[in-house]
Amino acid sequence: MSSQPNQQQQTLGSRQKFMTSANKGKILSNKCLKCGHIMVGTIIYCERCHGNELQSIELEGSGSVVTFTIQAVAPEGFNEVGKPYAWVVMRIDNTSSLKVSGILIGIKSPADLPLGSKVKVESFDPKFGLKLQKFS
Fold this sequence. Notes:
Blueprint: H1 7-22, E1 26-32, E2 38-40, E3 54-60, E4 62-71, E5 85-92, E6 99-105, E7 118-125, E8 129-135
């Protein structure tokens, strides 16, 4: 019997660590020791070179909006979120390409969230994922 954790255990552990970091306003990431690529911490093999030697790093959970979708009417199961809200894709500051997505409550129109707006991770909700907050 192997003492190494199986892939499912690794994935569950990395998800829990990701959630813990998000609740501190951070983004858990993995840096590939072979090629230097930075990716979300729940990924256990490099997206670029497929290497499996990764170093966990916590990045500040702030970034810029690259795209979003406004939900004026919440789908079933999201009623308690409040309406309207935006599903936002943000580029993490100080990275060239790392993007994450999350929910930003209170966005009523595109004018409320111009592309490039600064947002940061507020917390992680098990049901809704990353909860974001706009700041200047």
